[in-house]
Amino acid sequence: TLQQLISDTMVRWAQESVIEDPELVRAMFVLLHRQYDGIGGLVRALPKTYTINSVSVEDTINLLASLGQIRSLLSVRMGKEEEKLMIRGLGESQCLVAHFKEHNKILILMKTIIHNCWQHFIRAYFSLLKLAPLHFLLWTVQYMPMAVGEVQSLASPSMRGSTPLDVAAASVMDNNELALALREPDLEKVVRYLAGCGLQSCPLLISKGYPDIGWNPVEGERYLDFLRFAVFCNGESVEENANVVVRLLIR
Fold first, then answer.
1. At 236, phi and psi to the nearest 5?
2. 174 phi, psi to nearest 5 deg
3. Is 21 left (phi over 0), alpha (psi -120 to 50) or beta?
4. Which of 177, 164, 172, 159 is nearest to 248 (CA)?
């Protein structure tokens, strides 16, 4: 058989001559090993596969239910409970964010939410902070320039950098890759942008009798948590990058 022929050839080459090229030796042993590692290859491949059959019907139903929850949440302003549902739904599939770009309707819903929240700006300043999770979705879709361009007029200069998540998104808007795949140069931009937040006070804290600390920290940690748990880049969480942002802010 071909398998036996390859094995015998590799063994004969190793016995008959002196091979000095380490790359050739490595290639020979890899080829020899593959002849007897067919089952091992299948074992390593199985964890990376997903087959829909009678056994996985329940998993598929749960995934579709999570997708439905995520889509329904896009039409409302999210609070803490809604964010938990969103994070749990995203956890069903790390590739869901990549699939969002295929649905133009989601973009329309996001822009509608932004317009609606803007109408309530005078009445409730912090209502706009609830947009941070939606900003994440908005800026990570394929049509980022188009969507941002249509709502840019709503971005008040006083609101830019109001939350760490907004700042992270704004600092990499010109990056054609995943908008929240933060890198070291981008992290420096985050810190520089956040430095400008000192020009604003926090009306909510002042109204409750707290001293004016010079910037607005309300619910900032919650958005960092959302970033840490819900954002994936190449199948991996950006938790490490989020922690780097926090360390730089403290520094």
1. -120, 145
2. -85, 5
3. beta
4. 164
Kindly report each contact of residues 30-39 with a partner whose C-beta sits within 8 Å and lies 24 or more positions away, as own/partner: 31/6, 32/6, 32/7, 35/3, 35/6, 35/7
Contacts of 53 (CB under 8 A, 6+ apart): none
Tokens 């015998």 locate to 8
8 Å CB contact between 175 and 215: no
What is the pTM for the complete model shown?
0.19
Band (pLDDT 50/70/90 cuts) for residue 136 is very low
The type of residue at 145 is P
**Residue 236 belongs to what H/E stretch?**
strand 236-237
CA distance 216 to 168: 16
Written as six digits, the tokens of 111 are: 């822009």
pLDDT tens, 165-176?
A: 444 444 444 333
Q: Residues 41-74: pLDDT tens digits?
A: 777 777 666 666 677 777 777 777 776 766 666 6
pLDDT of residue 142 exceeding 50: no
**Residue 202: count of CB within 10 angstroms of its CB:** 19
d(CA 233, CA 247): 21
